[in-house]
Design goal:
Layout (H helix, E strand, L loop, with lengths): L3 H4 L6 H6 L2 E5 L3 E8 L12 H20 L4 E12 L6 E12 L3 E10 L5 E13 L4
Antiparallel strand pairs: 1-2, 2-4, 3-6, 4-5, 5-6
Length: 138
């Protein structure tokens, strides 16, 4: 069986690359990453699109949850994402921190906080519930 590090993609997803999301640390209970948000992430009104934050919540929570069950030959898929947008931003370098709140046999719950690194203010936060599922057969 391969190690979790070999089965959890770190920074090689084209989708997370399009977000600019880079994972700096991944454990079974904690994920830390960062992104540089700019006009590529804007709505037509010139602020970062809420879908960017929602996608970061989904991505960070899913990666951590998958890391937690990789030794069971499983990965985690999001089943519910509740993301709150706390303040608008025209762009910033953000820190993304995901923390496991609950890890059960079949489901997990993760909290993800996205903070403007320049001001220290939270821009968005969310909770992601995941389902642990078996890896597809080769």
């Amino acid at each position: 069986m391969s190690s979790p590090e070999q089965r959890i993609p770190n920074n090689d997803s084209r989708f997370t690359q399009s977000l600019g999301l880079v994972f700096d640390e991944i454990t079974a209970t904690y994920v830390r990453g960062h992104a540089d948000l700019n006009e590529d992430h804007h709505t037509p009104w010139g602020v970062v699109h809420g879908g960017v934050y929602t996608s970061m919540v989904e991505s960070a929570g899913s990666v951590g949850a998958s890391y937690a069950v990789a030794d069971r030959n499983q990965f985690a898929v999001g089943v519910h994402n509740a993301t709150d947008f706390l303040r608008p931003s025209t762009g910033a370098q953000v820190q993304v921190v995901a923390t496991a709140l609950f890890q059960g046999r079949t489901q997990q719950l993760w909290e993800v906080i996205i903070t403007d690194q320049g001001t220290g203010k939270e821009l968005s936060r969310g909770q992601l519930r995941t389902q642990n599922v078996d890896m597809p057969k080769a």
